[in-house]
C-alpha cells in the first residue's frame, strides 16, 4: 500500500493493481499496523482509502497466495480483524473511494467505512458461492448497511450478477457517484471538510454511532448521552460562537 499524510488527512492507496488489489497476508498485517498508527497519531483526523489501477478497487483475497492459517482451527482469525478500521478501534472517519470491480473481501473495508463514494464504473459482486464457498462475514457486515434482501441477493447470486454504481447509490451502499477522473479529488474534498472540524467532536460522533449500532434504541440513546457528557466539554472550546462563520452549504 501507499501511505501519505497531508493537512491532517491520511491517504491510503491499495497498490497491487497487477493483482486487482487483492489482499494477501502481508497486506493484512500492514493494515493492522497502519490502523494502530492512525489511532495513535492525533495529527491524522481523517482517512481516505482508495486503490491504484484502472480495473478494480479490490477483488478480495489473493487466491494465488492465500492467507496464513493456524493448524488449530480455533486459533484462526478472520482477516477483517486486521483490515477493518472499526475492528481496530479507529474512530477517525474513513472515506472509501471505490472504482471498477469491488468484490468479496473488499467489503471488509466498505462495511467499516463512514462514507463510501463510487466512480460511475464501479460494480459490486461476491464470488464466494460460485466457487462453492460459504459467503458469511462480508454479507453479515453488509446487512448492517443496506436492506437485508439486497445483501442476500448480492451474496447468493455470486458471479452471475453485478450491482451497478447507480443501484448501489439507490440502496445507500454508496452516498455519491462521480466520474472516475474526479473520484480521488472528491474524496479529498470531503476529507478536507471533515478535517477542518474539531477532531474531538468528529471522533466522538463516529465512536458513539458505531459502538451503539447493535443496542436497542433506548439503551443506545442512554449510552449516546454519555458520549455527549464526555466529549462536548473537550470539543466545544475549539469553537467560538462569537467568531464562528457558517459555511456556504451545498445541496446533495
Summary keywords:
alpha/beta; 252 residues; 2-enoyl-CoA Hydratase, Chain A, domain 1; four-stranded mixed β-sheet
What does this structure look like?
The protein has two domains: 2-195, Alpha-Beta Complex (2-enoyl-CoA Hydratase, Chain A, domain 1), CATH 3.90.226; 199-238. The chain has a six-stranded mixed beta sheet with strand order 1-2-3-5-7-10. The mean pLDDT is 95. Helices cover 36% and strands 16% of the residues. Strand 2, helix 1 (25-40) and strand 3 (46-51) form a beta-alpha-beta unit. The protein is α/β, with parallel strands linked by helices and 252 residues long. The chain is built from nine helices and ten strands.
Summed up:
The chain is an alpha/beta fold and 252 residues long. 36% of the residues lie in helices and 16% in strands.
Major beta sheet, specifics? 6 strands, mixed
Number of helices: 9
**What is the alpha-carbon Rg in Å?**
19 Å
Provide the residue-averaged pLDDT: 95
Structural class: alpha/beta
